[in-house]
């Protein structure tokens, strides 16, 4: 599932030549040429590494393959396939097995169509060399086999196990779009050997300490708090001390020995110091170190592959000029950009051209052309400094003295402070008892205040700017307030109509009310910085979310087969079996005493929640002992295994990622390309004031609009302004590349490989 | 206690000039000159930053101040002062208060003498400007005042509180030798502002979630497992959710809500994701980032200060030569090195000279001279390839065929493997029941085998090389085996004499037996690498040990005053009060039910163990609730405060340090100076084979001795060989400097400051 993927599987130059595509001379470029070049650029921009066929039919198929609709559909069917677990036995909502299997067949059909489509796009021998294609085919075939066996068993009234369900999340990893996820899996696999040696050493230390505990403490005839013998069984000691490393049974495991003598505390403190603090730090260090190292290598290759693709696009579009370097002229370039990214405005495209063609030559060489993919990835916000619609409608009113005073008031710092205070008062009111009529009615007052705020802001600021794509807090505010208004109106109309008040609606109103308070964070600059950093690394964290989903799903499937219905939850019933979760084997265990009956593997939702609890680690020994009690001692291995994989490996990689992303955010200067783009914007006097770059967009809007609102707008100001959303990344890859940019040579675009005539696969040389 | 210390408080050039010290001309250097230069070099070598007076008397006093004896005495008295807590009420071993106060007076006297000595060494105005001196004086005065008040109260039969005990650990921080510790405190203080903002944001998130929990869940009328109302008190919810961030009450705190509805699980999972995973990673990131940044700055200043001192030493010893750069000749240099480090062998000194004086000019300039401090810090092991003493005694026997065969056998890889197997068998035997006579007697067999191993090795290898300073495992082996032999003999003679077998002796024997097994680790190269890294960063970790000691001591003192004797431990008595730890307020609490009675603040040892348990975090809410139950709810603040300081700040700094140290160890190349020294060693053909540099010393010994043992020792090989213990650091500072060496300019030795005539304090410019 995480086979070493050649991330630079891009078409060979010779393949292009072989198909007779003009790569020299000044022949007019055909539509096919532009399609091909556009695909190269778009692949470079999004770091797609698909070795597609360059024949016009294949290119057309490839364009369709990359269309957003089939991609969304694919993900929808993967999610549908995964969510079948909700309806299959053991089910949250039971459905007959023929229904779920019919849906699964439909999903399999979609996956097959997708893979066939893919097979038509890329050359046959490449298709069969790629591990992820084979993986998908094997998953489809195995699932079919499993369904047939299960159906046959079912028909003959035997119980079958749907074992192929474990394979489902692997589809998420192996579809072509799962690049980030595959990379995360690769970084785990690369770190494994080193983690393994540290883990062995850790196990050795664990065994030595267990032996010492057995001999030193086991002989004393001590008993635990339940009266059972203490530290007398070697295997149990190993498990107990392993649990101690996760701190879950501290200090309980120490107490009997500590009660017997102060000196035994030294044993445990030494153990915790060595195995918990030292070894766990070393795990993090090893994981972090490997992660950084391999990621750097991957990103390096990614950048080389990207430059290759751009060079190839250049080769397609270049004009051969006698005695001079080949170049691409502006007309072709324009058409290319229009094809690659139709939503780029003309002004923006001209700006990009002027960055590339710095000397106004009307054509650009290879070096300048190669930048295009990165340039397109830099988000340039085109600020149209439009006048406020009210100003256009009735300028006299909007420009009148009271109106201008109002604008000034709303833009004043005090306005923000007043509303922060209102939010704080609101927080207190929420905390108070809502049975009180005064409090209940105050909600209306607060709602109107918030609505008033939004309306005032809309009066002062240009509405389209106010609701621009990047004004996170404006959107947040408006959605929350409007939703709260609607929900409150529904609720009061239901109450006044004498209908029973719906608990859910009340809950939603309450959540919306509390969420409103979060707005305060945006007023304090320090907080905004931290929050913005978190929002920025958010998409990358989602990759880890997928990773966790895959691992959880596999463990949930296995866990459900092993432990389903061994532990029962009785809810509010007064069944005496409730005290021991419906399984007499649990009588007297901590599991039953702590009322953990709902922590079970009886359906996929319970399983996932239980796995979250295991990830949080605390009390996982009680849970594992509980499930061991109802099955077999070896069941503990399932839980230990989960702990090693999720907590020691994945969580550490997650922490490593957050650390690295934070350091980059803290210390990074804008990248080379962004700076050259910004320089150009400034040169052309199109820039929004520098300090606003640091601030969020709403403030930038304010600066512009206030100039206009107060009529001081100088006429020599261009009506179109640019601003680089320098801290946003369109793709996770861009964040990663930025992470390691400082180590990459900007001039190295694999020219060497070009000269060697070996153009296709830098990784083969690198390896 | 952690005032910004000017780490570059070194004497001003002008001060030296003022005292009439010859700093030019070819006048013969006096003993005073050499003393002064030696102090500068030694200060540079050990990064001491003391602004001492340069008058001959002050220099003599300063030499005495730096002598090891008063330093050891000072630390002894600090430890004595700290350990008084064992004997003071609440005491482990009660002593009358006049006895402890007498000892404390003695300690104060020693500290006073030391500070007076220091005051005589450095200029008066510098003394009073230094916060750490004032700190020490204030501590001494306050302690005296406290003792007088306490004595007076005691005499008039009132109860007094010895509040000045909290100040004791601050002495450890503020003595001149506590450089590392002060640096650790500084790095914490520097990180605090940033941590504070993240913490505020975290608290905001905690408050918002608590409010939501109160409104969403508190209204449902749910009860906890004990039947008490669930999530109805806002303050309790905040505490519970704070505890959940530490994972200590997961999943218990969730269970009542989860049992009521699946949807509440989403609330808790979101909470854990945001506050536990995201925020805790951000804390680590912020701490790590700050730590790295400030440490770099400090080390940079440290290096500048060091170079300043070396330049000053150079100024004292230089010969003014017409029209040429001043230089230091070899004779003066030799005398200086002999004075600074008397234990350096002549050969080693000549090697160092040839590194400095690369062109054999007989004198060295400033640039070469400045290296001396770093060169002295590189540990060069002088390997005298001596013949084995037995060879000298009876060469015919030692060179005979059987003897040579024996040598070959012992040096063979199989020898190591055989002994590893023996150790494994031994491990199994230790695990088996020792009541069995066969097992009991086997111990003698194993002991003899281990003894035999050591004797064989001593036969083959030169004994002084075998027991050289760096042969950690040889020392380890021998000490363990000999101790085990002695303990076993004592034990059996006692048993055979019919005396009751002492449990302690048996325990010691057992521990020694188990420790023997650790030796296996050394046989596996991967493990050896990890262990060696850990051993190398060990001394630096000790600084954190001191840091923890200081914080623990303060918290233990406060905790003892707040909570002493509120909870009692009854041991094996059958007193019914045992069930509730002697305090009826604890009846029915988790604290009593989990039998945590011995986790109390009734003496300093219990307090420390309790604080370790709190550091491990698990169940800290049960402990804090217990102590809150016997005093007041606000007592929980003590525990929360401890958690914030120790777990969020200090442990994170510890992890950051281990991470950084590990990365350096993994990735570092040998530093510039070491390489030049190594180059010289190789040039002079004095090097031990390169690959042995990587390996541990025993193997290096083997290579040499086997050459000689088998008589193949070529006569053209020098009898003296050098080897750089490249991976060892004499001082923690050296490790730190190496950490950031790549960012430091080797040529920058503050010449600029020199030219500006402002020589003394680079930090004033830097700031």
From TrEMBL, chains A, B:
Broad class of the protein's primary localization: membrane
Biased composition (Low complexity): 756-767
Keyword Transmembrane helix set for record: yes
GO cellular component, one term: membrane
Keyword flag Transmembrane helix: yes
InterPro entries linked to this entry: Ion_trans_dom, Volt_channel_dom_sf
Membrane topology reported for the UniProt record: Multi-pass membrane protein
Listed name of the protein: Ion transport domain-containing protein
């Amino acid at each position: 599932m995480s086979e070493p993927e050649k991330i630079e599987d891009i078409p060979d130059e010779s393949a292009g030549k072989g198909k007779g595509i003009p790569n020299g001379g000044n022949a007019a470029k055909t539509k096919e040429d532009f399609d091909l070049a556009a695909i190269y650029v778009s692949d470079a921009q999004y770091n797609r590494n698909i070795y597609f066929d360059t024949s016009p039919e294949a290119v057309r198929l490839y364009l369709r393959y990359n269309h957003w609709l089939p991609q969304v559909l694919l993900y929808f069917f993967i999610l549908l396939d995964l969510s079948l677990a909700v309806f299959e036995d053991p089910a949250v909502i039971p459905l007959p097995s023929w229904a779920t299997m019919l849906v699964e067949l439909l999903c399999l059909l979609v996956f097959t169509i997708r893979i066939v489509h893919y097979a038509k796009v890329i050359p046959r021998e490449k298709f069969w060399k790629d591990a992820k294609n084979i993986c998908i085919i094997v998953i489809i075939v195995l699932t079919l086999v499993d369904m047939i066996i299960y159906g046959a068993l079912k028909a003959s009234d035997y119980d079958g196990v749907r074992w192929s369900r474990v394979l489902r999340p692997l589809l998420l990893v192996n579809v072509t779009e799962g690049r980030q996820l595959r990379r995360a899996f690769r970084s785990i696999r690369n770190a494994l050997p080193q983690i393994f040696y540290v883990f062995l050493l850790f196990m050795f230390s664990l065994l030595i300490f267990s032996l010492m505990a057995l001999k030193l403490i086991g002989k004393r005839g001590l008993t635990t708090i339940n009266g059972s013998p203490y530290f007398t069984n070697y295997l149990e000691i190993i498990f107990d001390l392993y649990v101690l490393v996760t701190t879950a049974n501290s200090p309980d495991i120490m107490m009997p020995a500590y009660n017997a003598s102060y000196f035994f505390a030294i044993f445990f403190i030494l153990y915790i110091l060595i195995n918990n603090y030292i070894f766990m730090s070393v795990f993090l260090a090893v994981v972090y170190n490997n992660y950084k190292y391999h990621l750097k290598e991957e990103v390096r290759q990614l950048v080389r592959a990207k430059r290759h693709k751009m060079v190839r696009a250049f080769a397609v579009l270049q004009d051969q000029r006698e005695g001079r370097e080949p170049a691409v002229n502006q007309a072709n370039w324009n058409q290319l950009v229009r094809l690659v990214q139709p939503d780029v405005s003309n002004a923006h495209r001209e700006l990009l051209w002027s960055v590339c063609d710095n000397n106004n030559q009307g054509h650009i060489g290879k070096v300048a052309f190669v930048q295009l993919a990165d340039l397109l990835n830099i988000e340039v916000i085109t600020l149209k400094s439009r006048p406020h619609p009210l100003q256009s409608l009735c300028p006299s009113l909007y420009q009148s003295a009271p109106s201008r005073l109002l604008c000034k008031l709303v833009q004043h710092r005090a306005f923000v402070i007043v509303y922060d205070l209102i939010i704080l008062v609101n927080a207190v009111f929420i905390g108070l008892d809502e049975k009180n009529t005064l409090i209940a009615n105050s909600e209306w007052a607060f709602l109107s205040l918030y609505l008033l705020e939004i309306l005032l802001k809309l009066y002062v600021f240009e509405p389209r700017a106010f609701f621009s794509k990047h004004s996170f807090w404006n959107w947040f505010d408006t959605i929350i307030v409007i939703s709260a208004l609607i929900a409150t109106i529904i609720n009061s109309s239901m109450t006044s109509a004498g209908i029973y008040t719906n608990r859910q609606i009340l809950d939603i109103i309450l959540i919306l009310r509390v969420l409103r308070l979060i707005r305060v964070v945006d007023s304090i600059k320090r907080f905004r910085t931290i929050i913005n950093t978190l929002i920025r690394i958010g998409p990358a964290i989602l990759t880890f979310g997928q990773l966790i989903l895959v691992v959880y799903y596999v463990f949930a499937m296995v866990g459900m087969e092993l432990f389903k219905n061994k532990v029962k939850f009785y809810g509010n019933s007064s069944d005496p079996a409730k005290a021991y979760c419906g399984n007499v084997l649990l009588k007297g265990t901590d599991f039953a005493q702590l009322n953990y009956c709902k922590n079970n593997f009886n359906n996929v939702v319970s399983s996932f929640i239980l796995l979250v609890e295991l990830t949080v680690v605390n009390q996982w020994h009680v849970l594992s002992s509980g499930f061991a009690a109802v099955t077999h001692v070896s069941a503990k291995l399932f839980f230990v295994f989960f702990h090693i994989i999720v907590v020691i490996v994945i969580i550490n990689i997650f922490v490593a990622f957050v650390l690295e992303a934070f350091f980059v955010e803290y210390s990074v200067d804008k990248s080379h390309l962004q700076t050259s783009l910004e320089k150009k914007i400034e040169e052309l006097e199109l820039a929004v004031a520098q300090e606003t770059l640091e601030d969020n967009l709403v403030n930038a809007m304010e600066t512009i609009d206030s100039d206009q609102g107060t009529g001081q707008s100088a006429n020599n100001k261009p009506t179109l302004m640019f601003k680089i959303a320098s801290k946003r990344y369109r793709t996770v890859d861009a964040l990663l590349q930025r992470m390691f940019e400082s180590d990459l040579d900007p001039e190295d675009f694999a020219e060497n490989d070009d000269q060697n005539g070996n153009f296709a696969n830098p990784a083969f040389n690198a390896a």
